[in-house]
Write a structure and sequence with these properties.
79 residues, five-stranded mixed sheet, globular, alpha+beta, single chain, 35% strand, YaeB-like fold
């Protein structure tokens, strides 16, 4: 399983969206363990996005670490 590191802004966003935070964290952990999930490469900038219902998770990964950069509603997470 890859190690998961959260940026401070991503942790703050999870606190703001407590109702879905557990589901988001579970999907990130599932992806870190199995590589499964609705993940696509971003166009126009580095990184990937993981879709969790109406929320998006922007992250970067290497061989051992997933660094979660941003969490938010799908419409605004790409700004």
């Amino acid at each position: 399983m890859k190690e998961i590191a959260f940026e401070i802004s991503a942790l703050a966003a999870l606190r703001r969206h407590r109702s879905v935070a557990q589901a988001i964290i579970a999907k990130i952990e599932r992806y870190a363990e199995t590589g499964a999930g609705d993940v696509k490469m971003l166009t126009g900038r580095p990184g990937k996005r993981l879709r969790v219902g109406d929320f998006g998770v922007i992250f970067e990964e290497d061989a051992v670490t997933i660094r979660v950069l941003t969490v938010g509603p799908r419409g605004g997470v790409y700004d």
